[in-house]
Amino acid sequence: MIWIKRGGWTLLVSLLVAFIALATWEPFFAQRGEASEGVHTYRAEIIRSEYGVPHIYGATDPDVAFGVAIAQSEDDFFTLQDVIAMSRGRYGAIAGEDGAAVDFVYHLLDARGTAERHYDSLPKDTRALLEAYAAGLNQYAEDNPDELKLANLFPVNGKDIAAGFALRQPFFFGLNNVIQPLVSGEPLRREFGPDIPGFPRDANGEVIGPDFDGEPADAAHYTPFGEDGVLNGSNAFAVSPEKSGGPTTLISNSHQPLTGGVAWYEMTVESEEGWHFTGANFPGSPYPFLGHNRHLGWTNTVNRPDMVDIYKLEMDESGTRYMLDGEWRDLESKTVTLPVKIGPVTLPIRREVHRSVHGPVIINDNGAFAIRYGGIDRIEQLDAYYRLNKTTTLEEWQAQIARMAIPSTNFIYADEAGNIAYVYNAAIPDRPEEVEANWRGVLPGNRSDLIWEGAVDYAEIPKLINPSSGWLYNANNEPYTAAGAVDDIDPESISPILGVELKQTNRSRRAWKLLSEAEVLDRENLKRIKYDTAYEREGYVAELWDAVEAHDPGADAELAESRELMLSWDFTADNEGPADALALLMIRDFMSAEYQNKEYPDVEEMLREEINHLKTHFGRIDPPMSELLRLRHGDVDLPLDGGSDTLRASTTWRVEDDGRLRLVHGDSFIQWVEWRAGDRVRSQSIQPFGAAISRPDSPHHTDQMELFVNHQLKPVHFWREDAIANASRRYVVESN
Predict the structure, then answer these.
(1) Which of 81, 292, 353, 708 is deepest in the core (most CB within 10 A)?
(2) Distances from the Cα of 40 to the Cαs of 123, 142, 387, 598, in angstroms?
(3) In this predicted structure, what is the pLDDT of residue 197?
């Protein structure tokens, strides 16, 4: 008995030691980060507006970048820590299995190696900006240890910031939709619709795309969708003074998640070195990505060019070498440790990552596949965004875009001189046209002539400068509808090897129609267009209504009632019709199916599912849509209009326990900019929640919500004297 008791204590102690080890190993294994070398001092003034939006002022650009880090940490240090953890391969220690998946991609893409290889080649002033931003994060972490999620996450340095860019940028053009199916061994999504010029076809004219074994299959590449299958989108408009009857107008209407690592954060930055810009960034950036300065501005929308090529490698029996041009080469392989938080412990999970000369390699049951993508092994976007902030003319601005340093996203531009422009920006791979290959399929990995270098020239990508229509727009549609029938780009003028998408969105159809019909695009008409809630009966909308009309409910009275309600819908998501709620629930899955080239859902199954949802939570199938769709944050709960893929975008929602749909992705940062002849630039903006996004105790946690739901904007205090005059708080931050 004594031996048993002693053995029990031994086992208990062993278990306790194991538990402590699993609960504490990760920060020691990860090791403490390193601050930048040298002694630097920074000083910035932060002027908070009546809505808490920071105007950050400093003598130098690095002073301002330091202030940006402090201001955003004050408002959302919760999210900033997630972003920094991603940039150091430690997100799994915060977010568990989902975070570990991000960490795996971090190692797979060699984000850290990319930053370390190229960081020193960035211009000195850009590096100084990144180092100052890192210093601001470090200081906030040091001053607020009670807010830290992970031990040894700080200090960080400029290379950490650069590694975060290298990791996250490819996800904007859908690299995740290649990695995920390759890791799981599932079929790849087809990238384009069947009308793409030059897409290979079989004897019956059907589009083909090789699967893993090189045989025809219904998949070829990727699409830039979130996990719920909904397109990551935005709207953008630019209008010349001749067409507006007054100012040159730029409307930025981004659709992003409302919270998290790619949610917009609004700010104005100003230094005595000439940096003066207002707009928004994502957590982890020292400068805005879109907005305006005194002279010009731009906004972005996601585009979907063919940015990724996949190669099937020919491996030897050992699985450690691959064939290239008749010679065996060693596959680069290394084992990485992924931290996976499960409850109170963090498990160390070991995984192998591989690389070939093509790029990252994923091995699954179907073989070994290498990935090469636009912007691979480059971090010049860190410099390009900074330079764009400081451009003053269309020529300077185009020179920065022409570097092809920013891997993707459309740009819509306007300036004080009355110029407007649209650029289908993408660092599209410079694929050799003389080489015979199916670039839309899985390529043979044993030929070096299929391994391209760099991006196509700026001259090759679609663009429009100052169209005669006087307006430009993009709503995540093909670039061939942008300025009206007279000015739109001819698809035949663009090489099919670029892989430019041929897709329309309902937002595009509505924008093109409404902009074309308007004789004058003054503020009133532009506001009507921007907040439009209607659907055109085309594409997936037509498919849904044709299916509803054709459906025979038989003797099922409930189905018959819901069918008639759907057929009575007025094709608007404006909260006014009895069918709006049911249509809102029905339409999104049809939209997702069209954009992903999947089969449309079964109408009867969908009707039954949505009838059940509405009756369970509302007791009827025709509740007001405003009771169903809600903007919720903190203690505020407000009704919303708009639907998936309307210009007033309520794109993605989460079903709450009470059956309401809480918006999580859609209209987010909106900015309306005007340049009038002889006047200084003026702008207004709005966010769905407030500046202090993750600070429930702040008065600026939810103070923009009422304006947002009522289609109202707040003033942007771009000019320093305006910022001071409207300040709710004004203070100085300095480095320790």
Answers:
(1) 292
(2) 18, 16, 23, 55
(3) 33
| Residue 6 scores a pLDDT above 60 | no
For residues 532 and 328, what is the distance between their CA atoms, to the nearest angstrom? 59
Percent of the chain with pLDDT over 90: 82
Three-state SS at 271: strand
C-alpha torsion 195→196→202→206, nearest 10: -30
In this structure, what token pair is assigned to residue 523?
Answer: 């503020």
> From the centroid of its chain, how far is CA 238?
21
**Residues 394-415: tens digit of each pLDDT:** 999 999 999 999 999 999 999 9
CB 483 within 8 A of CB 422: yes
Residues 438-449 pLDDT 10s: 998 999 999 999
pLDDT mean over 281-291: 97
| Sole residue written with tokens 């001092």 | 41
Where b means 16+ CB within 10 Å and e means fewer, 443-469 reads bbbbeeebbbeebbeeeebbbbeebeb
Measured distance CA(338)–CA(191) in Å, rounded: 31
Confidence category of residue 223, pLDDT binned at 50, 70, 90:
very low
Amino acid found at 292: H
Find out whether 295 and 247 touch, Cβ atoms under 8 Å.
Answer: no
Radius of gyration of the chain (CA): 26
Q: What span, in angstroms and rounded, lies between the C-alpha atoms of 328 and 461? A: 37
- pLDDT for position 206: 38
Handedness of CA 612, 613, 614, 618 (dihedral sign): positive
- How many residues does the structure list for the chain? 736
Tokens of 467: 């169209």
In this structure, are strands 661-675 and 629-633 parallel, antiparallel, or unpaired? parallel
Provide the token pair at 375.
């912007």
For residue 418, what are the CA distances in angstroms to 244, 512, 520?
A: 11, 21, 16
| Residue 98 phi, psi dihedral angles, 5° rounding | -65, -40
Q: Which two tokens stand for residue 22?
A: 């699993």
Q: Which two tokens stand for residue 686?
A: 């709005």
Residue with tokens 């009206």: 484
Can you tell me the distance from the alpha carbon of 190 to that of 374, in angstroms, rounded to the nearest whole number? 18
Distance of CA 130 to the CA centre of its chain: 21
> Mean pLDDT throughout 504-520?
97
Burial class (CB in 10 A: 0-12, 13-18, 19+), 699: middle
Torsion sign, CA atoms 397, 402, 404, 405: negative
pLDDT of residue 196 exceeding 80, the answer is no
User: Are 364 and 185 spatial neighbours (Cβ–Cβ below 8 Å)?
Assistant: yes
How big, in percent rounded to 5, are the helix, strand and coil portions of the chain? 35, 25, 40
Q: What is the mean pLDDT of residues 617-645?
A: 97
At 94-135, the pLDDT tens digits run 999 999 999 999 999 999 999 999 999 999 999 999 999 999
**Which residue, chain included where needed, has tokens 């900015």?**
671
Q: Which helix (H) or strand (E) holds 498?
A: none
Task: Confirm whether pTM is higher than 0.85.
Answer: yes
Measure the CA–CA gap between 732 and 719, rounded to whole angstroms. 18
Residues 286 and 381 sit within 8 Å (Cβ to Cβ) = no
Which runs of E-coded beta strand occur in 376-457? 410-415, 420-423, 442-444
Burial of residue 151 (CB within 10 Å: 0-12, 13-18, 19+) is middle
pLDDT tens track for 710-722: 999 999 999 999 9
Picking from 338, 411, 382, the residue whose alpha carbon sits closest to that of residue 166 is: 382
